[in-house]
Amino acid sequence: MLDYKLLQALAAVVEQGGFERAARALGLSQSAVSQRVKLLEARVGAPVLLRATPPTPTDTGQRLLNHVQQVRMLERDLQREVPMQEGEAQLPRLRLALNADSLATWWAPAVADLCRQQALLLELLVDDQDVGLRRMRAGEVIGCVCAAERPVAGARSVPLGAMRYLAVASDGFIRRHFAEGVSARTLAKAPAIVFGPDDQLQHRFLALAGFAVDFPYHLCPSSEGFVRMIGAGLGWGMVPALQAREALAAGQLRELIPGCHVDVPLHWHYWRNGGQLLELLTRQLLEQAPRWLGPIDG
C-alpha cells in the first residue's frame, strides 16, 4: 500500500522545483520533505528523483507522479459524491501545460464557462508547442496542449485544430530591410524574433517559401512581448493570425510574404483515468477550440 504523504512530498518537490519551496508549500521543514522522499525510495526500492537543479523524476518517479495526478482527480470526484466536513473539501486545481500562443489567444474564452460552472482553478505551465508533451511524460501535469499527436503511455490524445502563423513585421522594418524584396540575401541580414531555442517556426516558414538561410535573431519567450518587439521594428517573426489580425487590418504590421503561412496542429493530451472533471474539460475543448482553430490537414 502506497503512503500518500510520501507521494505528496515527491509531487511537491517536482512541481515546486526544489525541496525548500516544496517544504513551504506543504508547511513542513525541508528536512522532513527530504526524509519523506528518502523513505519513499526505500519502500519502492529505487531512486525517484535525480538531485539536480531543479530536481527531476526518474522513470520510477515519473510513474508515481502520474499516479498522484490521477488520484487527485479521482479524489475530487469522490468529494462531490461523499459528504465532507465543512472546510475539508478543496476547490479542484488542474495543473496543465500549453503553448504561450494558445494562452494569448483562444484558451481563456474556450475554458471560461467550464471554470465558472465547476469552480475550477487552473495552474498553467507554458512551453513551446513542440515540446510541451515532456511535462506529461515527466508526470508534472494532468493534461497538455501541444503539437505532438502521439500520446504518452496511459494518456489519450485528441486533435483540437490548427493554429495559423504568419510572418509579419512593421512597415518601417520592411522598408528598411526588404526594400528590394524578400530574398536569401536580405533575409540573412534582417533580424528575426524567436520565441525560444526550440522554436522552429521561422525555419519552417522559410523552407515553405523556398529559402535555406541563416539569420540573426532576438530571443523573446513572451507571446505578448514578442508581438510588441515586432511592432517596435526590432525584427520579423511568426505570429498567430488570431493575434496579428487587428494590427494587420490597421496597417501596423505587414506580412513578409503575403499568402505564405505555417499551420501548426494542436492536440489535447490527458490521462485516461483522470476523473470526471478532466473528461468535462476535454469535451469543452473539443466543442470550443474549432471556433478559433482551423482544420488539421490530412
Write structural notes for this entry.
Residues 2-58 form the HTH lysR-type domain. Keywords: DNA-binding, Transcription, Transcription regulation. This is LysR family transcriptional regulator ArgP. With 298 residues, this protein is an alpha/beta fold. Helix 1 (4-16) packs across helix 3 and helix 6 packs antiparallel against helix 13 (276-288). Among the domains are: 1-57, Orthogonal Bundle (Arc Repressor Mutant, subunit A); 163-263, D-Maltodextrin-Binding Protein, domain 2 (3-Layer(aba) Sandwich). 45% of the residues lie in helices and 20% in strands. The protein is elongated, with a radius of gyration of 22 Å. It is built from 13 helices and eleven strands. Strand 7, helix 10 (201-208) and strand 8 (217-219) form a beta-alpha-beta unit. Strands 3, 4, 5, 6, 9, 10 and 11 form a seven-stranded mixed β-sheet that branches. The chain has a two-stranded antiparallel sheet with strand order 1-2. It has a two-stranded parallel sheet with strand order 7-8.
Separate helix tally? 13
The CATH top-level class label of the domain at 163-263: Alpha Beta
Strand-residue fraction?
15-25%
Fraction of helical residues? 40-55%
Distance between the termini: 46 Å
CATH topology of the domain at 163-263: D-Maltodextrin-Binding Protein, domain 2
The topology string of helices and strands comes to HHHEEHEHHEHEEHHEHEHEHEEH
Annotated CATH architecture of the domain at 163-263:
3-Layer(aba) Sandwich
Name the CATH homologous superfamily of the domain at 163-263: Periplasmic binding protein-like II
Q: From the alpha-carbon coordinates, what is the Rg to the nearest angstrom?
A: 22 Å
Classification by helices and strands: alpha/beta
Can you count the beta strands? 11
Mean pLDDT: 88
